[in-house]
From TrEMBL:
<dbReference type="InterPro" id="IPR018376">
    <property type="entry name" value="Enoyl-CoA_hyd/isom_CS"/>
</dbReference>
<protein>
    <submittedName>
        <fullName>Crotonase</fullName>
    </submittedName>
</protein>
<dbReference type="GO" id="GO:0006635">
    <property type="term" value="P:fatty acid beta-oxidation"/>
</dbReference>
<comment type="similarity">
    <text>Belongs to the enoyl-CoA hydratase/isomerase family.</text>
</comment>
<keyword id="KW-0456">Lyase</keyword>
<dbReference type="InterPro" id="IPR014748">
    <property type="entry name" value="Enoyl-CoA_hydra_C"/>
</dbReference>
<dbReference type="Pfam" id="PF00378">
    <property type="entry name" value="ECH_1"/>
</dbReference>
<dbReference type="GO" id="GO:0016836">
    <property type="term" value="F:hydro-lyase activity"/>
</dbReference>
<dbReference type="InterPro" id="IPR001753">
    <property type="entry name" value="Enoyl-CoA_hydra/iso"/>
</dbReference>
<dbReference type="InterPro" id="IPR029045">
    <property type="entry name" value="ClpP/crotonase-like_dom_sf"/>
</dbReference>
C-alpha cells in the first residue's frame, strides 16, 4: 500500500489515510487502497472494530480536486460510483466502525466519516461539505447520510453554504458523537473501540442491520425487523453467555457465536 497505513492492536484495526502533504485527498488510488484494507479486516475474524483516521492535520480534505479537471461526465459518474461504493461498503460492514476525526473532514472526507457508525472528533477539527464552492455537490453519499443524521434544514444549510463548522457545533447537531482535545483523541477513540470490542460481534452485526435497514423503511417494517432480529438473538451462544454472566455476577465473554 502506498497511501494507507494499517495496524492491528488486538481486536482493533486502524486504517490510516497517509497522504498528509495533500491533506489525505481521496484520489482513485487512495480509494482503492482503503477498499482493500476494509476487505482485509472484514475477513479477519480477530478484528472486531475498525477505526478510520488520517495522518497529519487532516482526516481528509475530500475528493482529489486535481482529478476533476480531466473527468468527462461518464468518468465523473464512474468516479462517484466508485467512491460511493466504498462508503456503502463501510456503512454496511457487519463490524462497528469509528471515524477518528483528527483535523479537516471536508467533502468526500466528511462523507467517509458519515459512512462510519460513530465519529469522535478533536476540538480543533473542522467539518464541512464545501463542494458547492466548486460548482458541484456532494457525491459520495453525503446528500443522503448527512440529511438523515442532522435533518433536512441543517443538512441543506451545510451543503448550500459550504461553510466549515467546528467540532463543537457538529457535536451539538448530532453529527459527531464526542469531541475531545487532540492530545487525548487517540486514547478516547481507543477506549470507545475497546468497549465495543467487548460486546458480542454477532449481536452488534444484527443490531446494525436492523438500525440501518430500519432507517430506510417505514416504521412498521423497522419495528418488525427489530422483533425478528431480537428473536434471532435467542439462537446465539452469546445471548446465553450474557444472561448467564449477569445471573452469576461476572463479566460476560462473548465469542461471536
Ligand atoms: C465526482 C465525484 C464526487 C465526489 C464527491 C466529493 C467531492 C469533494 O470532496 S470535492 C473536495 C471538497 N474539499 C474541498 O473543497 C477542500 C479543499 N481544500 C481546502 O480548501 C484547503 O486545502 C483546506 C482549507 C482544507 C486547508 O488549507 P491549508 O491549510 O491552507 O492547506 P493547503 O490548501 O495548502 O493544502 C495543502 C495541500 O493539499 C492540497 N489539497 C487540499 N485539499 C485538496 C483536495 N481536496 N484535492 C486535492 N488537493 C488538495 C492543496 O492543494 C495543497 O497542495 P500543494 O499546493 O501541492 O501543496
Amino acid at each position: 500500500m502506498q497511501f494507507v497505513l494499517t495496524k492491528k492492536e488486538g481486536n482493533l484495526a486502524w486504517i490510516i489515510l497517509n497522504k498528509a502533504e495533500k491533506l489525505n485527498a481521496l484520489d482513485s488510488k487512495l480509494i482503492e487502497e482503503i477498499w482493500e484494507s476494509v476487505e482485509q479486516y472484514e475477513e479477519d475474524s480477530e478484528t472486531r472494530v475498525l477505526i478510520f483516521t488520517g495522518s497529519g492535520k487532516a482526516f481528509s480534505a475530500g475528493a482529489d480536486i486535481t482529478e476533476f479537471t480531466k473527468l468527462s461526465p461518464i468518468d465523473a459518474w464512474k468516479f462517484a460510483k466508485k467512491g460511493r461504493g466504498l462508503m456503502d461498503k463501510i456503512e454496511n460492514l457487519s463490524k462497528p466502525t469509528i471515524a477518528m476525526i483528527n483535523g479537516y473532514a471536508l467533502g468526500g472526507g466528511l462523507e467517509l466519516a458519515l459512512s462510519c457508525d460513530l465519529r469522535v472528533a478533536a476540538i480543533e477539527a473542522q467539518l464541512g461539505l464545501p463542494e458547492i464552492n466548486l460548482g458541484i455537490y456532494p457525491g459520495f453519499g453525503g446528500t443522503q447520510r448527512l440529511t438523515r443524521l442532522v435533518g433536512k434544514s441543517k443538512a441543506l444549510e451545510i451543503m448550500m453554504t459550504g461553510d466549515r463548522i467546528t467540532a463543537s457545533d457538529a457535536e451539538k447537531m448530532g453529527l459527531v458523537n464526542k469531541v475531545v482535545p487532540l492530545s487525548s483523541l487517540e486514547e478516547e477513540t481507543r477506549n470507545l473501540a475497546l468497549k465495543l470490542a467487548e460486546k458480542s460481534p454477532v449481536i452488534l452485526a444484527l443490531l446494525k442491520e436492523v438500525v440501518l435497514r430500519g432507517n430506510d423503511s417505514p416504521i412498521l417494517s423497522g419495528l418488525s425487523m427489530e422483533s425478528l432480529g431480537w428473536s434471532t438473538a435467542f439462537s446465539t451462544q452469546d445471548k446465553n453467555e450474557g444472561v448467564s454472566a449477569f445471573l452469576q455476577k461476572r463479566k460476560p465473554q462473548f465469542k461471536g457465536s
